[in-house]
Amino acid sequence: MARIAPSVAAVRLAVRRALPAGGLVLVACSGGADSLALAAAARFVGASVGLVTVDHGLQQGSAERATDVALWAEKSGFVPVEVATVSVEGRPGGPEAAARTARYEALTAAARRHGAVAVLLGHTRDDQAETVLLALARGAGPRGLSGMPAVKGIFLRPLLDVARADTRKACAALGLVPWEDPHNSDPAYARSRVRGSALPALVEALGPAVVASLARSAGQIGQDNEALDAIAADFSGEMVVEALSGLMPAIRKRVLHSWALRLGAPGGALSHRHVEALDALVVAWRGQGPVHLPGGIQVARDHGALVRVP
């Protein structure tokens, strides 16, 4: 019997560990090396596996690329196979954020249509390290530094402990020809600059283990976040300044963040500076006016409590 390439075995093992016990699983596959290796592994180890490829319409030939991925999936036995065509025009944020939002909406809708229990995403250890570096550059707090979660709702990321080099090797070993997304090397995008310059410079200066170390740190910070969020969740009732001021800063800011979300502030737009402004109403009160939150929400301090301004 032919020996399985170590890279193929590594991807398959990661997918096997992540797959739910039963039910249909969809793979989000762009045709790139990471998602292609993920799809091949899921099809090998999974009992019921479908595939969705999203056409953002941002590049010439994107429709043909999506069709090619779908044809490969059908020949490989994926059921169902779907091409989801989305539009990013008019969406808030830059092109990357708009495309990401449209993609996740399409994947969520596909999962609902087909009754899938999970959607697999092809983010690797290298993607996680890049995410941590980008968060550091933005001055993000623990939420940003925790990177991408392995599990978030129906979305699973089985390859966060697998190197990008292994997905490429797995494709080569299986005779799969991945699509090279030109956006991944376009210096107009911050992640492309991190991938092409910043992370390689760190590897050269500190050694190749730095990639795994950054990804591991994200996982550890994520666990700490879960613990702190659980403690913050125990705080209930009105936003009374006296009670809030007695909390440790890390807990208090999580309470304020959660409260802002409950008021209706969109999570994607609610930033560190918004939470800091709310915190200032508690611990640095100087008679300042209301804090403006995303979604047209205003919060003020009134008679010793934080209240939403009508």
TrEMBL record:
Principal place of residence: cytoplasm
The keyword Ligase is assigned to this record: yes
Boundaries of every tRNA(Ile)-lysidine synthase substrate-binding domain copy: 241-306
Keyword Ligase in annotation: yes
An MF annotation (GO) of this entry: tRNA(Ile)-lysidine synthase activity
Subcellular localization: Cytoplasm
InterPro entries on file: Rossmann-like_a/b/a_fold (IPR014729), TilS/TtcA_N (IPR011063), tRNA_Ile_lys_synt (IPR012094), tRNA_Ile_lys_synt_N (IPR012795), tRNA_Ile_lys_synt_subst-bd (IPR015262)
SUPFAM superfamilies, sorted: Adenine nucleotide alpha hydrolases-like, MesJ substrate recognition domain-like
PROSITE patterns attached to this UniProt entry: PROKAR_LIPOPROTEIN (PS51257)
Keywords: ATP-binding, Cytoplasm, Ligase, Nucleotide-binding, tRNA processing
Substrates-to-products reaction catalysed: cytidine(34) in tRNA(Ile2) + L-lysine + ATP = lysidine(34) in tRNA(Ile2) + AMP + diphosphate + H(+)
Top-level EC class: ligase
Entry's Gene Ontology BP terms: tRNA modification
Domain tRNA(Ile)-lysidine/2-thiocytidine synthase N-terminal: start-end pairs: 25-195
One GO CC annotation: cytoplasm
EC number of this enzyme: 6.3.4.19
Pfam families for the chain: ATP_bind_3 (PF01171), TilS (PF09179)
UniProt: ATP binding residues: S30, G31, G32, A33, D34, S35
Domain notes: The N-terminal region contains the highly conserved SGGXDS motif, predicted to be a P-loop motif involved in ATP binding.
Protein family (similarity comment): Belongs to the tRNA(Ile)-lysidine synthase family.
Function: Ligates lysine onto the cytidine present at position 34 of the AUA codon-specific tRNA(Ile) that contains the anticodon CAU, in an ATP-dependent manner. Cytidine is converted to lysidine, thus changing the amino acid specificity of the tRNA from methionine to isoleucine.
NCBIfam families: lysidine_TilS_N
UniProt-recorded name of the protein: tRNA(Ile)-lysidine synthase
Organism: Paractinoplanes atraurantiacus
Gene: tilS
